[in-house]
Amino acid sequence: MCGLHVDLYVNFMFVENSHYQSRGVSASKEEVHSAIATLDPGLYPHAFCRIFPDYLAGDPEWTCLSHADGAGTKSLLAYVYWKETGNLDVWKAIAQDALVMNLDDLLCVGAYQHFVYTSTIGRNKRWIPGEVLKALVEGTAACIEQLRTYGVDIHYVGGETADIGDLVRTIVVDGNMTVRWPKNRLITNEHIQEGDMILGLASFGQTIYEQHYNSGIGSNGLTLARHELLHKSYLQQYPEACDPQMDPALQYTGPYRLSDPVSPDGYTVGDLLLSPTRTYAPFLKSLLEEYREGVHGLIHCTGGGQTKLMRFLPAGLAAVKNHLFPLPPVFQLIRESSSASWKELFQVFNMGHRMEIITDEKHADDMIRLAETFHIQAHVVGSIVKANSEAVLQIIHPEAGVLVYP
Amino acid sequence: MCGLHVDLYVNFMFVENSHYQSRGVSASKEEVHSAIATLDPGLYPHAFCRIFPDYLAGDPEWTCLSHADGAGTKSLLAYVYWKETGNLDVWKAIAQDALVMNLDDLLCVGAYQHFVYTSTIGRNKRWIPGEVLKALVEGTAACIEQLRTYGVDIHYVGGETADIGDLVRTIVVDGNMTVRWPKNRLITNEHIQEGDMILGLASFGQTIYEQHYNSGIGSNGLTLARHELLHKSYLQQYPEACDPQMDPALQYTGPYRLSDPVSPDGYTVGDLLLSPTRTYAPFLKSLLEEYREGVHGLIHCTGGGQTKLMRFLPAGLAAVKNHLFPLPPVFQLIRESSSASWKELFQVFNMGHRMEIITDEKHADDMIRLAETFHIQAHVVGSIVKANSEAVLQIIHPEAGVLVYP
Known about the structure:
The structure is a homodimer.
Chain A: E1 5-7, H1 13-16, H2 25-35, E2 52-53, E3 62-70, H3 74-85, H4 89-107, E4 115-123, H5 130-148, E5 154-163, E6 171-182, E7 197-202, H6 222-229, H7 233-237, H8 269-273, H9 281-291, E8 295-300, E9 317-321, H10 329-337, H11 342-348, E10 353-359, H12 361-373, E11 378-386, E12 393-397, E13 401-405
Parallel strand pairs in A: 4-5, 9-12
Antiparallel strand pairs in A: 2-3, 3-6, 4-6, 7-10, 7-11, 8-10, 9-11, 12-13
């Protein structure tokens, strides 16, 4: 969510680990929420992003939004991959991560064109040469260029590249996206109602606008995935890619190197963890142009994973998800290697779908068919019900059992 | 400048130090410039920020700009100060630094109202608790609130707070500001001409909208200032506030602790180095409303210091600065402690004025009088001349002698 966006790339194993409980996720989220509590919540309390009056052009029928987000610690994984392989293309994927983490949040309020984008890169020049900056800039431009062919116009108008090695160990890649949008075409989640279906859009596979298989990993939970999947030898090999004051027993505790093949198709751990965050923009543009009246809500399953929806439900409603996608390989891998519980995994990762459309029964099939024209798998993963207890969300899963949130 | 903004918070002593020449500033600037060379330069090549068509509202008579910048390594100095004193107010100053580094760049294209602002904070939760985030958010809001009383409206609509301790040693504080502005009220620096005066606006003193004396330090050159002024003991005391892989001989080589008083008025080193970056917005709003036709150019002396102007002069023109402000105490202190040459100091620091108005003779006195009503010292520091050699800028200074750039 925008707002002040609270996006905590923390290692969820700390929750389980008693001597790190004080660094747990709940506490830190409360801390950040408390810090930003006095800020203007915007015009629509249930909307996925904070929506404001049109401060930029003063039109009473329009609104404006400006949104900040970034690739988080996925850039660290890219750093190690690039050092191991010499392949600069991984930085183009990171550029896409930063862009899509902004774009797909804004899609959730119904906006799909006339975006303005800036990028902010903070680097340690000792480790990050100019060719990495070049790949990031080119990756951003290439991603924007491709989206333009689908009618999603993003204008890359600026940014900042700062050498701040005393502050940044390797590289931080952030972005900011601004848009105006008419009030009568907003999605505010206020129309979510009892009986609605939750349509999940697969985070994995290969859309018609992707050149390669996408693992579905997105840009959330990478600190957990990195430390729990990768081998301790990385700690010695790339000390700049960790916090030296963190207990080494909690760093890089896994069995893998990035080059290890782990899927029947020959994909390596690196391929799976560094898949760029898929955007749903081309499909959602078509969807919102054809079926906007049927879209009751849109949820981007980022920080908070499959529980993200909970924060945006109107009062008196709850959600049941009982038909999630089968775990794609990257999340199977994480599940097998991680000490995190199923309950936590669903809070950290998208686990198979990263976008949800809340709609009514009569639109669901048409929307699924439209998604399939973009080669995006879609199906009904759950439904909206009346809240009858303190549970705002139940996940019912063949392996995980019944999980109740909060 | 906006654009992709190239802002290099590098330590200029590396230029002088043979075994660090490869990390020198010129090289790194070229590197970043090369990385961003393919990006759209915008509509006006000499303008201080890249100005684009009105992508946000599509009005042919308007333009739009979105700008990213931050407090850079000044946040590190704030960290040490806060650890030493427990005074959270220093974080409010850092919030102002990030905001003003965006705002005052945008003022230079003539824009002074209807801004939208987001902040991006990346922290290491081990060192930076919630109360620091709270002070940053409150500091941003307070700064905005005060500017509103002068008719400069900035809308704080979002941001991101990420816990990324594997990437960030302590805290990075960045911001992004977006604005639309009518073409017929832009300042593009195209009207700068031979015979124009360069009016300098003091970076130090106390304006009618400041509660305390401002040292004039701004948000540039803090890496140099920090390492060359502060005492080696900080290296042991706050290892998180440095790059452990940098040669210790180059870190914290100075004589001072932050609490050392260094001015006749009792100001400490910390007071001088952590003065918040002054904004010129209240004055420039009045100036642009009364005398816009007389404003041929506006230059914010940030990265590049007194040489910043060079990048924005129309072809065939050069500048002579022969009547700079006497060095205020903070720059005297830096001059006395630093091994950097005069030539470099003028390239890193504003040295006394952080904003320049290029105007003609008939407007200069009125503008100076208007500045004085805001208690901003202003005077003619130099002039625009015909370029007659390769020198684009000469600084003629009683102590430094004649310095020729580039």
